[in-house]
Every structure is written in structure tokens, then in C-alpha cells.
Amino acid sequence: MIWYTALVLAMGAERVAELVVARRNARWSLARGAVERGRRHYPPMVALHTLLLLGCLVEVWLADRPFDPSLGWPMVAVVLAAQALRWWCVHTLGPRWNTRVLVVPGLPLVTGGPYRLLRHPNYVAVVAEGIALPLVHGAWVTALVFTTLNAVLLTIRIRCENRALESAAEGALP
Questions:
Q1: CA-CA distance, 50 to 36, in Å (whole number)?
Q2: Which end is more exposed in the chain, N or C (fewer Cβ atoms within 10 Å of the end residue's Cβ)?
């Protein structure tokens, strides 16, 4: 279980790195007149992602979940693939990537990288990670609860992003 704890802590460090990049990118976007949308759903999203990491550890430690190699190793591969996809999104969007919904007026939609295949590839990474990270060590309750709550939040978030991007494309942003 020590290595699983290290994996979850590494994912926490990755989240901190995301926030550092997001803060830097927010300054870039705001300096160019970005408008933020979806402020109300952002704190619950941060809380949910924090609780995912805590839930992974608490469930494995308290419920004494065993490591099943036939499930655990494929789930490690999914977690790593999700990280690769996430950072491909970050790289593709460059300074426009953020954990918040910030849209700079006048910039065209990004259609390269993973965005040529999917409209919201970062959320594919989030969904995959939310299922796989807990299942690496059998934390199926955490996977189920996170996935259910995340589905609700992502429905709100994706609608918010789509409206913000449509408004920017129509020139309706202030």
C-alpha cells in the first residue's frame, strides 16, 4: 500500500503543478481581456478532486482493499495515459489552458492536438483518471462516488465552457 500512497501523493503533486500553470495562464488571459465564467461551480470541482485523492487513500487503508494485479496494473496504465492526454491538452492550448473557464475574446478555437479529435479531451482524461486511480488498489466505492458526482459537475462545466466559447465566437463577450 505504500507504493499506492506514493502514487496518490504524486497525483496530488501533479494537481499542484496544474494549479501553478493555471495561475500563470490566468494572468496571461486576464491581461488580454479574458472573461471568466462558471465561478460558482469551480470550488465544488476543486473540492471533488481533492476528495478523490483523499478517498483513494482512506478507502484503501480503512477498508483494507487488496491490490489485484489483474485490475491494478491495467488501471495504472490508464492513469498514466490520462496524464499524457491531460498534458497534451495543456501543451496544445499553451497559455490558454486553465482550470477555470477563461475565454480571451477574439482568439479562434484551438483545433490542433487532441482538439482535432475531441471537443473536450481534458475531460476524457479527468473521467479516466477518476475511475482508474481508485481502482488501481480496489477503491471501488471512491471510483463510483467520484464518477457519479463528477458526471454532474462535468455536465455543468461543459455547458458553461460551450456557452463561453460560443459567446466569444459571436463577439458577445465584453
A1: 22
A2: C
